[in-house]
């Protein structure tokens, strides 16, 4: 940083949201300053150093398609990677990588330090400066003032951070980092509501004290894989993850010590993550389950530290030792870092516009865990969008607001700003109504044109994409035109995959649509003149096999868009909507929205329930049209 204190964009925080925000703003040409309370914690993976899994992997790919960095950071640090949900449909299959947390951090540090227009500075922001409801800049602990018309807050779990281990609690950020204590009062002074949430993490144990031979081993995939759309797919050998399980003895230790749990003794006020609960919450919540899976995963290549995925706890240290020793393979395990819960301040995200700008203060944006989310992918996605919109706003251009049918990022932000969240929000495939449209494989088609338009994707990347898309389109067209004749050879192959024989020639697409028939089989009898990559073949196959479902989802999107202004009669009986959740029905009955658009913005009414409501309203309108038509005919 030079001595100048005037910037276009200031990013507060150097976590996953802060890194994406800083890089995007600077790459879009804005003079950007990242202020982070400790330069060595840039992109710190405070929990398990893993990227991906269902829905989260889609976010990472979407960040990549829009010109963000997370996919490249994950690829640069992957130790172990595999596909999840391979036995399920394409909409929920996802990559998951175990990363080296030091290499992940190094990747971001280098990216930040080598990006033009970007200054990084270590200090703690203590105050936002607001004049006439517009952001003017920030002040730091050193008493420095930095000015900018756009400020992005990405303070994560550090804001008012308090760590709990048993009955011991102390002010702290994650992993022994300092907490940011002063900024919250400045946010309250500016009129913002601030709430409290909590999350937790597991003990880390020493690798040499685990009996690995007694555990189930999980190797990295032998298929070359990567997250980056333009990346080089690789096989990652040598590092494995292992599986152990909790058992009745573990559960008994936990139950006997619940009175010493900060969660169950009422010491923690903040609401925790429902979808990533502590082991004590699982044992209390599911008393009939005698065992829970625990994954033992390395955190870095040059470290003996092992993360115990699914074993998050804030019980006292002596209890953590006993619980750990009760797990097969861990009887002699030594804990390097105890598990803990952390409480922190967040800003309820209904205070934000869909651009992630606050409604109250122009030019002030929030992204990441400060908005009530949990996860590196959720944070990165918001950081990127906040920066894109901050820069577009400075250029007096319209913000990029992604639709729910366009991106998981659209679902994430729409959920946050319209419905808010009472507990740490994690992205799940079930939150998304159009899963088949928002697949891992078609992310480039969905979002790269936007990344290109805003200037985050260069010519070289664009050229690669356009030739890939042409190849895919040509191949789909070819398969629809080609026919496969009935022959003994064809029918033998079909018998091998349990598919009925052909009695006459059929379009190759019809055959490919059959369960069990894959592109390889089709190619034997109707080969393509071009060479397609596995990824391209995957897209071609999905587009043909799932054509009917995909088209149906597009029709639903169109219908919902048309429904926005559809009126809901004042006396509408929500009891007539089959399958509507009672929670949604009660909310709709209480608010009595005038239009479907209003109904869709009521907090807590699920997307699925809106679909159900739209079907009934649509049917009513159709009936009314028919009735009116009939009456006219009778006249
Ligand atoms: C204990 C624990 C458990 C977790 N469990 C899970 C889990 O189960 N599942 C999951 O997906 N994710 C989990 N995570 C969450 C994951 O780590 C976060 O969601 C993610 O890091 C959030 O990214 P972020 O950028 O919003 O914030 P962070 O990564 O927390 O980064 C915040 C940044 O802001 C900086 N900062 C804060 N205040 C100031 C200030 N005033 N001035 C200057 N700099 C400041 C910090 O130095 C830091 O760089 C957990 C995190 C913790 C700590």
Structure description:
With 635 residues, the protein is an alpha+beta fold. Strand 8 and strand 9 (145-147) form a beta hairpin. It has four domains: 9-201 and 344-453, FAD/NAD(P)-binding domain (3-Layer(bba) Sandwich); 204-336, Beta Barrel (Elongation Factor Tu (Ef-tu), domain 3); 469-549, Arc Repressor Mutant, subunit A, CATH 1.10.10; 564-634, GidA associated domain, C-terminal subdomain (DNA polymerase, domain 1, Orthogonal Bundle). It starts with 8 loop residues before the first strand and ends with a helix. 37% of the residues lie in helices and 17% in strands. Mean pLDDT is 93; it is low at 631-635. The protein has a six-stranded antiparallel sheet with strand order 15-16-17-18-14-19, with no helix packed on it. The longest helix is centred in the C-terminal third of the chain and has 28 residues, at 607-634. Bound molecules: flavin-adenine dinucleotide. Residues 12-18, 35-38, 41, 46-47, 124-125, 154-159, 174, 180, 183, 199-201, 273, 276, 342, 368-369, 374-376, 379 line the site of flavin-adenine dinucleotide (FAD).
N- to C-terminal separation? Answer: 80 Å
Number of DSSP E strands: 23
Q: What fold name stands as the CATH topology of the largest domain?
A: FAD/NAD(P)-binding domain
Rg measurement, Å = 26 Å
CATH architecture assignment of the largest domain? 3-Layer(bba) Sandwich
CATH class of the largest domain: Alpha Beta
Q: Look at the structure and name the CATH superfamily of the largest domain.
A: FAD/NAD(P)-binding domain
Q: Spatial order of the strands in the main sheet?
A: 15-16-17-18-14-19
What overall geometry do the principal axes of the alpha carbons give? globular
Mean pLDDT: 93
């Amino acid at each position: 940083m030079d001595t100048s204190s005037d910037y276009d964009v200031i990013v507060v925080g150097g976590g996953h949201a802060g890194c994406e925000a800083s890089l995007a703003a600077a790459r879009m040409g804005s003079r950007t300053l990242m202020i982070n309370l400790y330069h060595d914690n840039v992109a710190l993976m405070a929990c398990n150093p893993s990227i991906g899994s269902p829905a989260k992997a889609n976010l990472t790919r979407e960040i990549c398609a829009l010109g963000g960095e997370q996919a490249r950071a994950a690829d640069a640090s992957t130790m172990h990677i595999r596909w999840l949900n391979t036995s399920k449909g394409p909409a929920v299959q996802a990559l998951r990588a175990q990363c080296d947390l030091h290499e992940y951090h190094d990747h971001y540090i280098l990216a930040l330090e080598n990006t033009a227009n970007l200054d990084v500075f270590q200090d703690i922001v203590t105050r936002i400066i607001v004049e006439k409801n517009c952001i003017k800049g920030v002040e730091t602990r050193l008493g420095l003032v930095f000015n900018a018309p756009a400020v992005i807050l990405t303070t994560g779990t550090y804001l008012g951070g308090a760590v709990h281990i048993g009955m011991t609690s102390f002010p702290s950020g994650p992993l022994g980092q300092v907490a940011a204590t002063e900024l919250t009062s400045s946010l309250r002074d500016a009129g913002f509501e601030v709430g409290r949430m909590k999350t937790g993490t597991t003990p880390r144990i020493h690798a040499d004290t685990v009996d690995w031979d007694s555990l189930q081993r999980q190797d990295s995939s032998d298929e070359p894989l990567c997250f980056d759309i333009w990346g080089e797919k690789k096989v990652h050998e040598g590092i494995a993850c292992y599986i152990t399980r909790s058992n009745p003895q573990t559960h008994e230790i936990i139950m006997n010590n619940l009175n010493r749990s900060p969660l169950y003794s009422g010491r923690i006020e903040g609401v925790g993550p429902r979808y990533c609960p502590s082991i004590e919450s699982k044992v209390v919540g599911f008393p009939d389950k005698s065992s829970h899976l625990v994954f033992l995963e390395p955190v870095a290549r040059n470290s003996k530290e092992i993360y115990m995925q699914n074993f998050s706890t804030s019980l006292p240290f002596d209890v953590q030792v006993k619980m750990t020793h009760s797990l097969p393979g861990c009887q002699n395990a030594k804990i390097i870092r105890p598990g803990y819960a952390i409480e922190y301040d967040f800003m309820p995200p209904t205070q934000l516009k869909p651009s992630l700008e606050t409604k109250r203060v122009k030019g002030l944006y929030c992204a990441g865990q400060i908005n009530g989310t949990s996860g590196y992918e959720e944070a990165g996605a918001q950081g990127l969008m906040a920066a894109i919109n901050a820069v577009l706003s400075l250029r007096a251009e319209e913000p990029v607001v992604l639709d729910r049918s366009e991106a998981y990022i659209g679902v994430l932000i729409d959920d946050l700003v319209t419905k808010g969240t009472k507990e740490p929000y994690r992205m799940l495939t079930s939150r998304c109504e159009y899963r088949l449209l928002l697949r891992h494989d078609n992310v480039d088609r969905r979002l790269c044109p936007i990344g290109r338009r805003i200037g985050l994707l260069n010519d070289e990347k664009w050229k690669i994409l356009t030739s890939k898309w042409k190849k895919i389109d040509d191949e789909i067209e070819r398969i629809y035109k080609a026919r496969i004749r009935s022959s003994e050879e064809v029918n033998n192959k079909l018998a091998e995959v349990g598919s009925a024989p052909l009695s006459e020639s059929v379009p190759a697409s019809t055959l490919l649509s059959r369960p069990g028939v894959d592109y390889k089989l089709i190619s034997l009898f109707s080969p393509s003149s071009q060479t397609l990559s596995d990824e391209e073949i995957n897209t071609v196959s999905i587009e043909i096999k799932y054509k009917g479902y995909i088209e149906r989802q597009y029709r639903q999107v169109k219908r919902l868009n048309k429904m926005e202004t559809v009126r809901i009669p004042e006396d509408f009986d929500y009891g007539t909507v089959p399958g509507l959740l009672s929670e949604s029905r009660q909310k709709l009955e209480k608010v009595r929205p005038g239009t479907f658009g209003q109904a869709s913005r009521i907090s807590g009414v699920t997307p699925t329930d809106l679909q159900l409501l739209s079907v009934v309203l649509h049917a009513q309108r159709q009936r009314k049209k028919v009735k009116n038509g009939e009456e006219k005919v009778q006249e």
